[in-house]
Amino acid sequence: MELAMATKRPDKKNSDGEKTEKLDKEKEEEIFQKGFEQGLRAQVSKTLLELREQQKELTDNVELLLEEEEQEGSSERDNGTFISSMYETITARFLPGWRRKQHIWRLVVTGIICMAALLSVIYAFLPSRRGVVEENMT
Q1: What sign results for the dihedral spanned by CA atoms 84, 88, 89, 91?
Q2: Residue 64 sits in which domain range?
Q3: How far apart are CA 85 and CA 98, in angstroms?
Q4: How far apart are CA 50 and CA 47, in angstroms?
Q5: Cα radius of gyration (the chain)
Q6: Both 73 and 102 in a single domain?
Q7: Are residues 88 and 108 in the same domain?
């Protein structure tokens, strides 16, 4: 009987030891997970701060460019309106209906492409001659 009891006691210790090992492993995993999450949060916050700084620099640069454009814009506006009016005049006199012709060509090209696609689909569904001849022979 003493032998039987002696063998039972180590089993209890082993099961208790396994339980404590499992608990220790779970605690280690939790600690590792918490550390990982904290490290990830720190890394994300660092990148967010860098992105905010870059965005601030970009907005400052854009504001400076806009201010320079406003200062130089008054003299260039007169030139810009002159150039755009000349362009409109030239296109109206020398290229009448150019936009309409462009539109027609686009429609023609689109129609040709659609017809080719439709014909390729129809051709894919037609049986090949070799297959039809073999079916008739059998």
Answers
A1: positive
A2: 1-96
A3: 17
A4: 5
A5: 40
A6: no
A7: no
Show pLDDT as tens, one digit a residue, over the chain (138 residues).
Answer: 444 444 444 444 556 667 788 888 888 999 999 999 999 999 999 999 999 999 888 888 888 888 887 777 666 566 667 777 777 777 666 666 666 788 889 999 999 999 999 999 998 888 776 655 566 666
Q: Which two tokens stand for residue 82?
A: 């002159």
* Full 3-state SS string of 90-127: HHHHHCCCHHHHHHHHHHHHHHHHHHHHHHHHHHHHCC
Residue type for 30, please?
E
Collapsing DSSP to helix, strand or coil, 128 comes out as coil
**What's the structural domain count of the chain?**
2
Q: Give the number of residues written for the chain.
A: 138
